[in-house]
Amino acid sequence: MARYRFRDVRRFGPVQVATYTDRHGREAHTAACTAPGCGWSGDYLDRAAAELAATAHRCSPR
Ligand SMILES: [Zn+2]
Q1: pLDDT by residue (tens digit) across 30-46?
Q2: Which of 8, 18, 22, 48 lies at a C-alpha separation of 20 to 30 Å from 2?
Q3: Residue 1 falls within a domain, yes or no?
Q4: Which InterPro entries match (predicted)?
């Protein structure tokens, strides 16, 4: 989404974690899997939670 400015992007395996400022001006964190066909992603209030989710994610190929 173009209106979000991602920063501190880090990669954990196929999962990328980024911090951004949402439309309310609050800091938010997202984790998204970049593996083709996976589509897993999540939003978190804490950076640590996003990173934990990223490292715990296991792709389940179809
Ligand atoms: Zn995945």
Answers
A1: 999 999 999 999 999 99
A2: 48
A3: no
A4: SpdB (IPR007806)
